[in-house]
Each structure stands twice: as C-alpha cells, then as structure tokens.
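Renewal narrative, Specific Aim 1. Our central claim is that a sequence can be written position by position from structural information alone. The example that follows is taken directly from our test logs and has not been curated for this report. It begins with the structure tokens describing the chain, in the order in which they were read.
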C-alpha cells in the first residue's frame, strides 16, 4: 500500500509517496501545519528497509553533483534528481521519522538556495507584531533562552530559518518542527523580516547596530548551507544584499524578557519598510485589543 502526503515549505510542495508499513500518524503530526493539496513540484518515493544501516561514517552526509542530491545518515540512504524533480529514499523503521526529516530538510534547503536565491541560517526566528526578528550566534549564545523568554511570541523556528527574497525585501518562512521549540499559531506563508540580531549574553541589556561589513562577517559564521551548494562569492553577494536591506545589530541581553523593550525601541523607528509597517500594525492592533479588554473590565 502507498500513502501519499504533500507537504509545502517556503512555497514548494513536495509529494511523499510512503510505501508499506510506515508510522503515518507520526508523520502527519510532525507535518500537520504543512500538509497541502497542491500539485507537487517534487515527488519522493519513501521505502522502509529493516536491514539498512550505514556503518561507514565517511559516507554520511550530503553531496551535490550534476543536479543529483544524495543524503546519507545512520539509517537513511536517499537521492533526488533535481532536474527531473524526483527521488527516493530507503529508511530503517527504527529511526523513521527523524531520518525522513533529515531527507526532506536537506531537499528544501537545496531548493531554497538554488531555485529561490534564498539563505538558510542556523538561527531562531521569532514573529512579533507581524514582523520577524532573527537571532543568531554560535551554539550556547542564547537562542533557546530568547525563545523561552518570549512566551507571547510565535516561534517560527528555533533551529533552521528559511529566508527568501521577495521583491526588494525579505521574508522568513516557517519550517516543520525540526527543532524543539516551535510555538504559536502560525500560517504557512512568508512573514516580513524586520531585524537580525547577533546574541551576546551579558549582565546588561544593550543593542549595538552593526555596519554592513561587520554584520556580514558575523552572519557568515552561522550558515546552514551545504558547503558545495553555492560558490563563496555568490554566498557573499547574497549576504550583502540581505544586510543592505535588513538592519543587523548585536544584542547584549540578560535572562529576562526586558530585552524586547530595547528591540522595540529600535524596530519601531527603523528597519525594512515592509517589516516596519507590519511591526507598527501589529503593535496598533495589540494596543486596540488591550484598550478593549480594559474597557470591558470597567
């Protein structure tokens, strides 16, 4: 028996043709916010293979050659012909859902980078007042802490952030729960990117704007793009284009939620036009809701 699901990430619908005895309910649960009935752009055939194990660690990883994407992990062997837009994967059922996530995550990453001129960062994307703030930094810099300290915000992704150029601005797209802290009622669409922040744990709260060159050098330390997917010069130009449009700052923060006050002080008056307008609209709507709520209590 073959079960077919179509998932859409960053406006790219991909069909999963799942053959045999697979954990269909678990897969639906992971991708429930990304299921769609659109015509698939890519078709992937997925087979369970109880005997599959990869013991040669040198073969584990991702390769891209002649429009063929190959993904190998401990319990996964998969490939996609990017020209024909079809592929297949064999997955050991003992680690089926995480291995499937590895396979499709790498496909969406390559598609975003090669087809959309997009960027993928190991970062935290937080939706607040209609605009997205992206927080980045090395492991341990505080991305999970910022997510925990922002209970009223929607967390689009706490692991991989998909950034896509839209006209002269940029949008951030939700990703499936490939991390641990996605949160909130989010639509499967792009949201305007308002600001980028490099996180620095500190004893005081301080937001320090970074110049273009400094911002690029900081963002370059946290890409989540396969090394062979894009030449260095092309990647540099993409970061230049991004940070020429989207402000980038260094945010020194403490373990409380007060850093949002410093962020709002800057985002309310600066940032991309689309992101700034979305931010202000969201704040205005929130103020109206608060006024209504206060009035109803009187």
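The sequence written for that structure reads:
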């Amino acid at each position: 028996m073959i079960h077919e699901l179509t998932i859409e990430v960053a406006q790219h619908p991909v069909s999963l043709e799942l053959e045999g005895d697979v954990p269909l309910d678990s897969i639906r649960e992971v991708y429930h916010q990304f299921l769609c009935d659109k015509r698939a752009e890519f078709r992937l055939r997925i087979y369970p293979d109880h005997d599959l194990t990869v013991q040669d660690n040198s073969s584990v990883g991702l390769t891209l050659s002649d429009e063929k994407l190959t993904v190998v992990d401990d319990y996964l062997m998969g490939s996609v012909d990017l020209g024909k837009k079809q592929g297949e994967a064999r997955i050991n059922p003992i680690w089926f859902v995480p291995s499937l996530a590895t396979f499709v995550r790498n496909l969406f990453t390559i598609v975003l980078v090669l087809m959309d001129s997009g960027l993928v960062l190991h970062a935290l994307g937080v939706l607040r007042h209609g605009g997205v703030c992206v927080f980045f930094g090395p492991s341990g810099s505080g991305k999970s802490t910022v997510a925990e300290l922002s209970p009223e915000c929607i967390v689009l992704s706490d692991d991989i952030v998909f950034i896509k150029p839209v006209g002269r601005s940029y949008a951030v797209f939700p990703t499936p729960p490939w991390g641990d802290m996605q949160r909130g009622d989010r639509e499967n669409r792009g949201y305007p990117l308002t600001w980028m922040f490099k996180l620095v744990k500190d004893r005081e709260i301080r937001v320090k704007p970074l110049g273009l060159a400094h911002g690029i050098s900081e963002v370059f330390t946290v890409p989540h793009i396969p090394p062979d997917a894009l030449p260095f010069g092309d990647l540099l130009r993409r970061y230049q284009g991004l940070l020429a449009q989207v402000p980038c700052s260094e945010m020194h923060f403490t373990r409380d939620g007060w850093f949002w006050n410093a962020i709002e002080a800057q985002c309310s008056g600066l940032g991309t036009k689309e992101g700034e307008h979305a931010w202000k609209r969201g704040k205005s709507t929130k103020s109206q809701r608060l006024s209504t709520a206060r009035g109803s209590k009187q």
